[in-house]
């Protein structure tokens, strides 16, 4: 299975987040999956990719040329795809993925996550989307989503678009059992 992971490129986050990245990387590798990620050699991205590779996963990085030119592209991947811009990067990540997992991250991670949720809502894909809520990081997002449901901005059926979990293993377990869950489309 091709698993796309969105996560932080920061080296300055707590050890608990690096541990989660290692846990996910090892689970992806042990499961015989392929990792698709943002292609950098920094932060959780680096920890995830190195660990996945060490456990036998094939790893594909997808990075815009402007970020590669900053000297933070991973150079030891099985494949590195260099794109012209962020939009092309996201399109390639999305097209290659059979499932999406979001570890904690900053604005880029949040934007990538919201885009794949929206695309699933609009029936552009039916891939599982899992949000790993390490250390309660995504609690505010969960509450914001609940507010959208409670105040009528989102249909209750859209709760099926994604799954919040508390560990990397729970994320993979969800993906294994929900590889093609049908969601009512916003367009229906």
From TrEMBL:
Q: Which GO terms describe its molecular function?
A: AMP nucleosidase activity
**Enzyme nomenclature, EC number:** 3.2.2.n1
Its Gene Ontology cellular component terms are:
cytosol
- One Pfam family linked to the record: Lysine_decarbox
Q: Does the keyword tRNA-binding apply?
A: no
Q: Which UniProt keywords apply?
A: Cytokinin biosynthesis, Hydrolase
A single GO BP: cytokinin biosynthetic process
Reactions performed catalytically: AMP + H2O = D-ribose 5-phosphate + adenine
Broadest EC class? hydrolase
- List the SUPFAM superfamilies: MCP/YpsA-like
Give a yes or no for keyword Hydrolase in this entry: yes
| UniProt-listed NCBIfam families | Rossman fold protein, TIGR00730 family
Similarity comment: Belongs to the LOG family.
Which named protein is this? Cytokinin riboside 5'-monophosphate phosphoribohydrolase
